[in-house]
């Protein structure tokens, strides 16, 4: 499914009328082992009675698009026209005046992949996040190092040892992501969740089997990397809250539309520290077999921000705001009938 958003009129709209965005849906036929032409609907509830099959559909390759083709659909004054020209290589490449210093991207990923209730979603997120940041490092031409704690090794002792082993240079990027259960102590005063680092849910939870996300913040901040990003996709409520839903959430496919200069601004032209989690205190965060709503939304927000077609200022503040908004939307009754709302939190202190 491809989901539209923020639809606009391409002709004059004097009455300021609004309309719903379109959804495109493909269905796989097991008998013929082939995909259908897409169906289209503007019904946000996705009632099958509203689906209409399109007459024709062609997936475009940016390498084959010409300026003449774009002018059929856009005026030469429109922002999308210039964005698409840039995406399709029809403009003179931007001149890079500032050379960035050598850098390394460190990804520290802690995932409770063996948990019987959320392990499948954690495994999916682990795979997607590792692939995403490896490709980002390749696109930026920076070295890449992974530190993974998962499976039987999932424990506080291993997390602490892993954090101690991260020795970034002064121009490096450190990204820490936790995917697992989270909670808060009854007498806890800070806003950030405790990471539940037990290898078995039958074991008693203590200070020796948990760690606050803010402690990771303090540890990494003291190591002196240029940019630190700490994310926690976990609950932030009292122990034993349920956080599993069967609803599926699929992000859209993105091909050949990432602006490398936006990517450089985010990762190479930024210094500071970022801390964010999936839920406010008292809330649960939701997990599906396709991943956590927060992790899915984070990847979606990054891709939207670095797209040629995004007209927003490319910044970490916009990415985290978008992540929280998308995850909250996915937890509304419209998309998840058995979910409660999750409202993420963020702290950002960066310079560009």
The rounded Rg comes to: 22 Å
Shape: globular
What is the domain total for the residues?
A: 2
Number of helical runs?
8
Structural class: alpha/beta
Rounded mean pLDDT score? 89
Helix content: 25-40%
Number-wise, the strands total: 17
Strand order of the largest sheet: 8-7-9-13-14-17
CATH top level label of the largest domain: Alpha Beta
Helix-strand topology string: EEEEEEHHEHEHEEEEHEHEEEHHE
| Poorly predicted regions | 251-256
Strand content: 15-25%
CATH topology title of the largest domain = Rossmann fold
What does it look like?
By secondary structure, this protein is an alpha/beta fold. The chain folds into two domains: 86 residues, no CATH class; 248 residues, Rossmann fold (3-Layer(aba) Sandwich), CATH 3.40.50. The strands form five sheets. It has a six-stranded mixed β-sheet with strand order 8-7-9-13-14-17, sandwiched between helices. The protein has a four-stranded antiparallel β-sheet with strand order 1-2-5-6, with no helix packed on it. Strands 10-11-12 form a three-stranded antiparallel β-sheet. The longest helix is centred in the middle third of the chain and has 22 residues. The chain starts with a strand and ends with a strand. The relative contact order is 0.12.
Quick recap:
By secondary structure, this protein is an alpha/beta fold.
Features:
352 residues; alpha/beta; Rossmann fold; 2 domains; six-stranded mixed beta sheet; four-stranded antiparallel beta sheet; 8 helices
């Amino acid at each position: 499914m491809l989901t539209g958003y923020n639809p606009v009129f391409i002709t004059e709209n004097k009455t300021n009328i609004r309309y719903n965005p379109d959804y495109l849906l493909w269905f796989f036929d097991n008998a013929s082992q082939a995909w259908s032409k897409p169906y289209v609907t503007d019904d946000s509830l996705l009632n099958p009675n509203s689906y209409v099959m399109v007459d024709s559909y062609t997936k475009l390759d940016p390498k084959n698009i010409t300026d003449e083709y774009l002018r059929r659909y856009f005026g030469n004054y429109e922002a999308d026209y210039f964005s698409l020209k840039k995406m399709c290589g029809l403009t003179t490449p931007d001149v890079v005046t500032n050379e960035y210093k050598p850098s390394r991207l460190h990804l520290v990923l802690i995932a409770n992949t063996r948990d019987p209730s959320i392990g499948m979603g954690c495994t999916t997120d682990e795979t997607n996040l590792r692939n995403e940041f490896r490709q980002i490092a390749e696109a930026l031409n920076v070295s890449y190092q992974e530190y993974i704690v998962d499976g039987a090794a999932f424990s506080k002792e291993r997390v602490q040892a892993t954090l101690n082993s991260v020795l970034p240079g002064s121009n490096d990027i450190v990204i820490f992501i936790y995917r697992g259960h989270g909670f808060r102590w009854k007498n806890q005063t800070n806003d950030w969740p405790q990471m539940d680092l037990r290898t078995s849910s039958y074991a008693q939870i203590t200070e020796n089997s948990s760690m606050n996300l803010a402690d990771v913040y303090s540890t990494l901040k003291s190591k002196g990397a240029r940019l630190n990003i700490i994310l926690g996709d976990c609950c932030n409520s009292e122990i034993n809250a349920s956080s599993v839903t069967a609803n599926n959430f699929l992000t859209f496919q993105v091909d050949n539309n990432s602006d490398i200069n936006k990517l450089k601004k985010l990762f190479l032209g930024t210094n500071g520290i970022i801390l964010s989690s999936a839920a406010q205190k008292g809330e649960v965060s939701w997990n599906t077999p396709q991943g956590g709503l927060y992790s899915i939304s984070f990847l979606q927000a990054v891709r939207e921000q670095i797209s040629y077609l995004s007209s927003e200022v490319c910044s970490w503040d916009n990415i985290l705001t978008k992540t929280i908004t998308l995850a909250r939307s996915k937890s509304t009754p419209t998309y998840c009938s058995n979910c409660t709302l999750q409202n993420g939190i963020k702290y950002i202190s960066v310079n560009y």
